[in-house]
Design a protein that fits this description.
mainly alpha; Growth Hormone, Chain: A; 13 helices
Length: 429
C-alpha cells in the first residue's frame, strides 16, 4: 500500500523542473535549490524577529494588565486575522503573482512593526493599542502565509514538497528556540521596544530576497475574489479527506491554545518567573520542535497519519498537565520540550496532508482555509482558556485543555478519521 510520501514522490514535476539537478530524496535535499535555500535563510531571520516581537508583546501585556484573558488575547490577536481573512488571502494568492503578494505583506508588516517599536519606546502603549498592533501584524501574516506556503511548489520539485514543508517548519522552530531566550535577555536589559525594532529590521532581508527571485511565470485563471473563495470552500467542504483533516485541525488547535496562550501568565504568576524564565520555556519548546521535524516523515510512514496525531496529542496532554502542576520553572522545563515535539508532529502532518490533496489551481485557497480553521480554533481556544483562567485559575484552565484534547481526539477519531495512505492524494498538478 502506498504511503503519503511514496505517492508524492511519484507525482509529476511542475514549475521547478530544471531549476537544479534531480536531488536524492532526503530530509535536507530541498537545500539543493538556490531559491529555496535563499528564501529559507531569509525567512529564518524574519521568523526570529517575529518571535522576538511575540515574546515582547506577551510580556509587555503582563506589565500593562493583571487580566489573564488580555494576556491570552495577545496570542489570539495574532491568529484571528488568519481565521477571518485567510480564505480571501488564499484567493489572492491564487489570483496574483505569489511573490508580489508576499512582498506586499512583508513591507506592510515592516511598517507596522516599526510603528510599534516607536510607540513602545515612547511609553504610549495601552493594552488596547498593543492588541491593535499585534492584530495588524496578524493581518500581514494572514496575507503572506497562503502565498508563501503555495510558493513551495515554485521553489522545489513536487517530489520534495514534504521535505520542504518539514524544513520550513525547522526554520520556524529554530527561531522559536533562539528568539525566546534572546527576547528574554533583550527585554531584561532594555525593554520590549528593542525587540520590536529588531523585528522590523528582520523583514528587510526577506524583502531583498523576494525582489531578487524571478520565479517561472505561473498560468493564472483569475476569478473575482468572492466566487474564487466559494470554489475553495466548496472543494474543502465536499472533498471527504480534506474535510476530515480540517475538522481535526479545528479541534486540535482549540486545545493546543491552552498551552501557548496561558504560558506568559503561568510563568509570571504561578511560577513567579521573570522574562528570562519565559524565554527559556519558549526556547526549549523551539528546541523540541527542531528535534521533531526531521523525524516526522519517517514516523508518519511507520504509524500513519492517525498514529502520529495520537502520539502528538498524548505528548501535549502530558505537557499541559505538568505545567499546570508546576510551581517552579525548573519543574516545567521537560513539558516545554515535549510540547515542542508534539506541536511540530501535529501541525506538519496536517499541513502536508492538505498540500498533497489540493489541486494546484486552488492550492492557496485550500491552504488558507486549513489555516483559517486551525488557527481559528487556536484563537477561540485562547479566548476560552483565558476566560476559564480568570473565572477559576490557571491550573484549572490547563487541566481543562488537556481533558478537552483527550475527549475531542477520541470522538473525532471515530467521526472524522484521518485519510488512509494515498486516499485523496492528487498525483498531477
Amino acid at each position: 500500500m502506498k504511503t503519503e510520501d511514496s505517492v508524492a514522490e511519484q507525482a509529476v514535476a511542475v514549475a521547478t523542473t530544471g531549476l537544479a539537478p534531480p536531488p536524492r530524496a532526503g530530509a535536507f535535499s530541498p537545500f539543493r535549490y538556490p531559491v529555496f535555500r535563499a528564501i529559507w535563510i531569509a525567512n529564518l531571520f524574519s521568523n526570529i524577529g517575529s518571535t522576538l516581537q511575540g515574546v515582547g508583546a506577551a510580556w509587555m501585556m503582563t506589565e500593562l494588565t493583571t487580566s489573564h484573558q488580555l494576556v491570552a488575547l495577545v496570542q489570539a490577536s495574532a491568529t484571528v486575522p488568519i481565521m477571518l481573512l485567510g480564505v480571501f488571502a488564499g484567493a489572492i494568492a491564487d489570483n496574483f503573482d505569489r511573490r508580489l503578494v508576499m512582498l506586499t505583506a512583508q513591507v506592510g508588516m515592516l511598517i507596522v512593526s516599526a510603528a510599534l517599536a516607536v510607540m513602545a519606546y515612547a511609553h504610549w502603549l495601552t493594552p488596547d493599542l498593543l492588541l491593535a498592533f499585534t492584530l495588524s501584524v496578524g493581518v500581514g501574516t494572514a496575507l503572506n502565509s497562503p502565498a508563501w506556503q503555495a510558493s513551495v511548489r515554485q521553489q522545489v520539485d513536487r517530489s520534495e514538497i514534504p521535505q520542504a514543508i518539514a524544513l520550513n517548519s525547522i526554520s520556524f522552530n529554530i527561531a522559536r528556540s533562539i528568539g525566546p531566550a534572546l527576547g528574554g535577555i533583550l527585554i531584561s536589559i532594555w525593554n520590549p521596544s528593542f525587540a520590536f525594532a529588531i523585528n522590523a529590521i528582520s523583514y528587510v532581508g526577506l524583502i531583498c530576497v523576494l525582489l531578487w527571485w524571478k520565479p517561472q511565470v505561473r498560468l493564472i485563471e483569475r476569478r473575482p475574489i468572492l466566487p474564487a473563495v466559494a470554489i475553495g470552500l466548496r472543494f474543502c467542504a465536499t472533498n471527504g479527506p480534506v474535510r476530515r483533516i480540517l475538522m481535526r485541525g479545528l479541534a486540535l488547535g482549540f486545545s493546543l491554545a491552552a498551552y501557548q496562550s496561558l504560558l506568559p501568565s503561568v510563568v509570571s504568576g504561578q511560577m513567579h518567573g521573570g522574562e528570562l524564565d519565559y524565554g527559556i520555556m519558549l526556547g526549549l519548546f523551539g528546541i523540541g520542535s527542531i528535534t521533531a521535524a526531521p523525524f516526522t516523515g519517517p514516523i508518519r510512514r511507520k504509524i500513519g497519519l492517525e498514529g502520529i496525531l495520537a502520539v502528538g496529542a498524548a505528548m501535549f496532554v502530558f505537557s499541559l498537565i505538568l505545567v499546570a502542576a508546576s510551581d517552579r520553572v525548573l519543574y516545567a522545563l521537560p513539558a516545554a520540550f515535549v510540547a515542542g515535539l508534539a506541536w511540530v508532529m501535529i501541525l506538519t502532518t496536517l499541513n502536508t496532508a492538505v498540500q498533497l490533496r489540493a489541486p494546484e489551481a486552488i492550492l492557496g485557497r485550500c491552504l488558507s482555509i486549513y489555516q483559517a480553521v486551525t488557527f481559528g480554533g487556536m484563537a477561540l481556544g485562547s479566548w476560552v482558556w483565558g476566560m476559564v483562567a480568570d473565572w477559576q485559575s490557571l491550573p484549572t484552565a490547563m487541566y481543562a485543555g488537556a481533558a478537552v484534547l483527550i475527549a475531542s481526539f477520541a470522538v473525532l477519531r471515530i467521526v472524522a478519521p484521518m485519510p488512509r495512505p494515498g486516499e485523496g492524494v492528487i498525483d498531477a498538478p
